[in-house]
Amino acid sequence: MSQDPLVIFTPSGKRGHFPVGTPILTAARQLGVDLDSVCGGRGICSKCQITPSFGEFPKHGVTVSEDALSEWNKVEQRYDDIRGLPKGRRLGCQATVQGDVVVDVPPESQVHKQVVRKRAEARDITLDPVVKLFYVEVEEPDMHEPSGDLERLVIALEEQWEIKGVRADLHILSTLQPCLRKGEWKVTVAVHLGDEENPPRIMHVWPGYHEGAVYGMAVDLGSTTIAAHLCDMTTGDVVASSGLMNPQIRFGEDLMSRVSYSMMNSDGAQEMTDAVREGMDALFTQIAADAEIDKHLIMDVVVVCNPVMHHLFLGIDPFELGQAPFALATSDALRLRATDVDLTIHPLARLYMLPCIAGHVGADAAAVALSEAPDKSDDLVLVVDVGTNAEILLGDKNGVLACSSPTGPAFEGAQISSGQRAAPGAIERVEIDPVTKEPRFRVIGSDLWSDEEGFDAATAVTGVTGICGSGIIEAIAEMRMAGLVDAGGLIGSSEQTGTDRCFADGRTNAYRLWDGNEDQKPITVTNADIRAIQMAKAALYSGARLLMDKREVDHVDRVVLAGAFGAHISAKHAMVLGMIPDCELDKVTSAGNAAGTGARIALLNRAARAEIEDTVRKITKIETAVEEKFQEHFVNASAMPNSSDPFPILRSVVQLPDPSFNTGGGDEDGGGRRRRRRRG
């Protein structure tokens, strides 16, 4: 367990351990807490005001002393003298962690921006980056033994650091001589140590001994969000993290709609390439400003992404990925200059893209394999990176299989009647009393359940705005456990279920999850919502089941849920729906943003790049689109949890009612009803 102090934020409830001296604003950013700052933490804008709390906190298991934060400083005093700070308030950019502390973020300090739920996960990484700093002393020029300054610097690097064959670009030559003379022939050199394609190369030269850092960026380029982690290459620390919505969303929510856009518009692919490159460069600018570093000190970038994003980011038309045999332009790892993809960071910065596994299984899945290492597992592990397109790995030391499954955007709130992405005010947790059929829920931004005292006040600013992916999964699973929806996905009427929360909605029924108020309309779960989730979860399960068939097994030892969304899924609710195979619930774990973690490993450890390239070559790729049994599994998996697989482990711990609300009318979920009649 970490010995660093524990920082707990309210009302979000987010917590984490941070070293003594960490500014509260930095801790908030690393945890994804909604704390505003316009000036980049310089103590100018005062938007990052926070209120520390002291005393006993049994709920959180901490005691907060009066000296849990650093002392009031001159910057805060100056602001208080000029504009005044409310009593008890501190500036988050100035107050630093000294001990366990509970920090409240008042409503006026919250941005209420969309929560992009991707963050750097804690993981041990052996620090060995491809860009390192070297201090060298260079021979002065001698008229009797004439040679160029660069040549003598190269010799110094070889003699003093055993780095052979170092090259330099024109950018270095234009600044080298002033640096050498200013440093009195002592300089610090940033060197890219090279790889199988490129020799070592001088990236930057500083006169004398340079105590600063050089930086790298680990990027998870998703179809919905772009998340990036700025890392200090000398310490391995994540200095700052942030994310933004992928600007390509305006061309289509899912990958195939973007492929279609490129097919139907002559400049479509280039438009999407320009959009994602501009978005990534803007994100780099923002993160550098947040961290208060020079953007041009970013010298190495690692990018992971799915195959369609891979092609569009590189400026390759994804046309071939839209049709069998789903051929990639290249599946190998790529070693590029950052300028090749229009990133305005250090002029000599390099960019490494992990290899793709197959036409629909990309570098993000390779990054998950690097992070979770199924090929090193003694037991059979299923790793599912849940997103708009799910990447699935199944394996152990005896081998790894991989496939992708087109789940679509329903898991992220799209295609849901009251759906939204994860943001303050979105319902994220749901419970339904199996006797009264009454619901209770929690929203992002509050620790309180909807039936607890103070909930209305706690959510007064955000309101209850909709339901996000984790919320809709829990809602439907709870409805299934409460007997409000049958295995085929039909919601019962008020008479059939015994609650007026179920009401007629056209030819089917719906369930009223929240009654609404004068400002916001009620939130309901409709049969169309259930159908959208059924289709998404059936695709996910079918991919996993197909890999199990290939491995000739009918169960797995453990399941790892990866991805920004996967980190927030309840294992029990996912299994009730039949999203994942039957498994002991305590063997279902979350890896958080494993793709982002894999990118960070590749950024900070150059040996990991060769390792994942070798691993990918050994992975067996399965293309779901051409597998005959995929459709059979899909039909069976449309039921909840499944019309064919019995889920004995789940049923031993969860009581699933078995109502049938099929009255023979309507066309909603007809396939599910026919399957129930066959089981009779």
UniProtKB/TrEMBL annotation:
One of its GO terms (molecular function) is iron-sulfur cluster binding. Residues 657-680 are annotated as: Disordered. It comes from Aliiroseovarius halocynthiae. This is DUF4445 domain-containing protein. Residues 5-109 form the 2Fe-2S ferredoxin-type domain. Gene3D superfamilies: 3.10.20.30, 3.10.20.880, Domain of unknown function (DUF4445). InterPro entries: 2Fe-2S_ferredoxin-like_sf, 2Fe-2S_ferredoxin-type, Beta-grasp_dom_sf, Corrinoid_activation_enz, Raco-like_middle, Raco-like_middle_sf, RACo_C, RACo_linker. PROSITE patterns: 2FE2S_FER_2. It comes from the Bacteria. SUPFAM superfamilies: 2Fe-2S ferredoxin-like.
